[in-house]
């Protein structure tokens, strides 16, 4: 979509942005920053030499290094784009090397534990403003990213109470420059909301795909052959990166367990309704859930095209048009 992001900035917001972790999110940021001219220069930092090679080959950054400590030195914005469990150890390494007045942010899917792990390693002259772009795919690595990933998606900022507002506003401008809509929240609120909208659905998908794979009465080839019955839509989510999701569940334990408790209770109600032939309960629940999908489509967060926009060969309609 060529002009989806609009016109690039005439004057960049930052001198040099340091991105640590050039996977799906980090490489999408690099591409978006370049395309929208949000920084004069980008330093790409990744522990994996193969990732660094790929980033250089794709010409995504001005400087590429495996050394986080030296890489962040000249940056006025540094973003941690690594699995949430790696944020604390990285902060310990880079903390002493961050320049005065630098903004440090992250993109982690969990916020409270990242704040707890990162903050103790930061000097007072650094502004730590956590963020979470609610955008992604099931793919990983530097080749998976694209500049429009954040377009029309939400990015949640969870600044601390004592944040310097001008710095928070600058980070907001940055995300808006990438096409995102920005929302402010406390870290605790973020973790509770995302537990139900993202973490629980991933856990359910991982579980249901695992259960189907372990079945003995229905063969695996049958599961795959007839997957269009609903199963394949869970497999997309269940193909998400195992390291990232292990860290999400280990770091948002309390909120996920609370939501899992609620989910299990509601599931038991449906189980009971099926057992006792209570069609009214089933019908009412399914009617309520259908309305929720409608509101997601109305808010532009999903396509209204049938079957998630998967097109049949004879379908000539535009899948982006709401029906
Ligand atoms: P990814 O594609 O797996 O990329 C992560 C990159 O970080 C990899 O290249 C990894 O190298 C590197 N890395 C790991 N530890 C490092 C360290 N200590 N120092 C330097 N580099 C390191 O992951 P992603 O999907 O972009 O996710 C990154 C973050 O974004 C996570 O915190 C996740 O919660 C968040 N997020 C993800 C999504 C999504 O849909 N994927 C959406 C929103 C937010 P190796 O390959 O060698 O480990």
Keywords for this structure?
323 residues, alpha/beta, Rossmann fold, 6-phosphogluconate dehydrogenase C-terminal fold, 2 domains, six-stranded parallel beta sheet, three-stranded mixed beta sheet, 12 helices, 9 strands, 12% strand, disordered C terminus, binds NADP nicotinamide-adenine-dinucleotide phosphate
Explain what this protein looks like in three dimensions.
Helix 4 runs parallel beside helix 5 (112-118), helix 7 (187-214) packs across helix 9 (231-238) and helix 7 (187-214) crosses helix 11. It contains twelve helices and nine strands. The strands form two sheets. It has a six-stranded parallel beta sheet, with helices on one face. It has two domains: 14-185, NAD(P)-binding Rossmann-like Domain (Rossmann fold, 3-Layer(aba) Sandwich); 189-277, Orthogonal Bundle (6-phosphogluconate dehydrogenase C-terminal fold). The protein is globular. Helices cover 46% and strands 12% of the residues. By secondary structure, it is of the alpha/beta class. It starts with 13 loop residues before the first strand and ends in a 25-residue tail after the last helix. It binds NADP nicotinamide-adenine-dinucleotide phosphate. Residues 20-26, 46-48, 51, 68, 81-84, 86, 90, 107-109, 132-133, 136, 140-141, 241, 244, 248 line the site of NADP nicotinamide-adenine-dinucleotide phosphate (NAP).
């Amino acid at each position: 979509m060529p002009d989806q992001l609009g016109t690039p900035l005439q004057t960049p917001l930052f001198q040099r942005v340091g991105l640590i972790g050039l996977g799906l999110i980090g490489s999408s940021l690099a591409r978006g920053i370049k395309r929208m001219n949000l920084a004069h220069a980008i330093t790409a930092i990744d522990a994996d030499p193969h990732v660094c090679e790929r980033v250089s080959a794709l010409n995504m950054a001005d400087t590429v290094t495996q050394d986080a400590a030296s890489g962040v030195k000249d940056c006025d914005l540094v973003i941690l784009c690594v699995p949430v469990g790696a944020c604390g150890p990285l902060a310990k390494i880079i903390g002493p090397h961050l320049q005065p007045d630098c903004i440090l942010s992250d993109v982690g899917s969990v916020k409270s534990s990242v704040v707890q792990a990162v903050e103790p390693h930061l000097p007072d002259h650094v502004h730590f403003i956590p963020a979470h772009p609610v955008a992604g795919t099931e793919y990983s690595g530097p080749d998976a990213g694209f500049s429009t990933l954040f377009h029309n998606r939400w990015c949640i900022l969870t600044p601390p109470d004592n944040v310097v507002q001008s710095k928070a506003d600058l980070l907001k401008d940055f995300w808006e420059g990438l096409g995102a809509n920005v929302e402010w929240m406390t870290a605790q609120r973020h973790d509770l909301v995302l537990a139900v909208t993202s973490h629980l659905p991933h856990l359910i998908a991982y579980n249901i795909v695992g259960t189907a794979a372990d079945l003995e009465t229905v063969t695996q080839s049958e599961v795959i052959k007839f997957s269009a019955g609903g199963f394949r839509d869970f497999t997309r989510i269940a193909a998400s990166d195992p390291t990232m999701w292990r860290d999400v569940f280990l770091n948002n334990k309390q909120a996920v367990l609370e939501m899992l408790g609620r989910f299990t209770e509601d599931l038991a109600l449906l189980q009971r309704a099926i057992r006792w032939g209570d069609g009214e309960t089933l019908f009412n629940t399914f009617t309520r859930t259908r309305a929720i999908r409608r509101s997601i489509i109305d808010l532009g967060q999903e396509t209204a095209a049938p079957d998630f926009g998967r097109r049949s060969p004879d379908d000539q309609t535009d899948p982006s048009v709401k029906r």
